[in-house]
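Hi everyone, sorry if this is the wrong subforum. Our group has a chain we'd like a structural model of before ordering constructs, and none of us has done structure prediction before. Sequence below.
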Amino acid sequence: MPDLRTLTSTSTITVQLVYLARLREAFGRAGEALTLAGADSSVGALLGVLRERGGSFGLELAAGRAVRIAVNHALVGMEAMLRDGDEVALLPPVTGG
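Answer:
Right subforum, don't worry. Here is the predicted structure as tokens:
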């Protein structure tokens, strides 16, 4: 029996994005639903899609900018695979005193 979580090139998933702290301000929204099509449903691919929007997305998510990613409240790396319905939070570094 095939693994139903495996995506094919014609599959799509929809994730709920949550933008926190300065990213919420820069993007002008607290979050959005985003549908990804294709075989690569990794966090890295998602960030690539967002960067391609350009403007504040391209600037804030550029290579070398510090942004952490949490999927369903757990910090993950760029290679983590996303599933339909996942909540993906983008967190900039935060300092406090």
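For your construct planning: Strands lie at 12-19, 31-37, 68-71, 74-76, 87-91. The first strand starts at residue 12 and ends at 19.
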